Amino acid sequence: MQVFEEIQALLLQHKPFVCYVKPNEAVWNLLVQQTDEIIEFSNQAGFVFMPFHEGKQLVIPFEGNNFSQGNLENLEKKPTESFTSESNQKEAFENLVSKGVSTIQQGKFDKVVLSRKIVLKEQIAIVETFQNLISTYPTAFRYLFFHPKIGLWMGATPEQLVKINQNQFETVALAGTQLYSENVIWATKEIEEQQFVTDYIVTKVKDKVNNLIVSDAKTVSAGNLAHLKSFISGELTADFQANDLIKALHPTPAVCGLPKEKAIDFILKNEGYNRKYYAGFLGEYNKDNQTDLFVNLRCLEVENDVVNIYVGCGITKDSNSEKEFFETENKSMTMRNILVSK
C-alpha cells in the first residue's frame, strides 16, 4: 500500500515526517518536511510535537511542505513477538509510588502521576508495527513521528488535549484505569481522581471563556482498558485565544498531578529519567482554522537498538504501590501487543 512504502523510503532518507490517523477515521495523513532542520514552534500552522517539560518544541509547518491524504484499506495484522524487558523495575517503581503516597499524606499535594520507561533490547520493524497500531486501536489518535535530530516516536493515544474550531473548544477530563469488562465498577479513588482533573480544568478556564459546559463522567474504553471521562466545552474570547488555552491545560493533572507545580517538581526530582515527549502533546495546530491536539500517552520511542515504552499512573493517598505497578504493566501492553520483530 502506497503510504507505507513512502514511509519506508522517508525513513531510509532520514527525512522528517509525521503520518497520523485520527480517532474513528480511516484516512491517513502524511506531512513531510523538505529540510532536516529543527523548526521550533512559534504559532505556525502545522503538526506540533511538544515535550512534557523541557526539550525542543517542534513543528512541521503545513506551508512549504508536502501534505497528502488517502484512505486506509484493510490492514492485515502482522505477527507480533513478545519481547522481555531488560531488568526488573518492580521494586524501584513501587518505592517511587510509596514515596509519592507518603508525600501526599504529608499534605504536599493531592495527586501525582508517576511513570517509568520500559526498555526492550530489540529491533522492531517500524512500518509493520505502525500498521498493527493503526488496525488494533481504531478509536485512538495513531501516529508515527520521525525527525533525524529528535528521534522516532509512535503511539495510540486515547486522550484529547483540546479541539478548537474557530472559537469553540472542547477538551476532556480523563482519569481512572482498569481492565475493560462489560460492567465496570469504579472505586472511590478513581472517581475522586477523575473529579480532580475536571475541577482543575474548570478552575483554569471558567473566568476566561464563555458558555462553559461540563458533562457527567462516563466509562469509555481504550484498547483493553477502561477510563472515566467527561467533556468540557466553551467559547474562546478575544483575550483568551487558542495558545492561552493550550498553556492553561498542558500538562494536565492526568499526566502530572495536582497542584500542578508541586507535582511537576516531585516528578522531576524523583522519577529518575527524562520523559522527553511522553506526556507532552501533538497534533494539528491551526489547520484550516481548526486545532486538534492529543496528549502523548501509550507511546514508544525507537532509540538506536532499543525500544522505550513509556507508562505511568495517577497516585493519590489511597494508592497501593504493587497495584500501581501492575497498572503500568497493563498500559504497556497497548504497545507490547503490536510489536513486529525486524
TrEMBL record:
Pfam families xref list: Chorismate_bind
Reactions listed under catalytic activity: chorismate = isochorismate
EC number(s) stated in the UniProt entry for this protein: 5.4.4.2
Domain Chorismate-utilising enzyme C-terminal positions: 90-331
GO MF, one annotated term: isochorismate synthase activity
Signal peptide as annotated in the record: none
Keywords: Isomerase
InterPro entries recorded: ADC_synthase (IPR005801), Chorismate_C (IPR015890), IsoChor_synthase (IPR004561)
Family note: Belongs to the isochorismate synthase family.
NCBIfam families per record: isochor_syn
UniProt-recorded name of the protein: isochorismate synthase
Species of provenance: Flavobacterium aquaticum
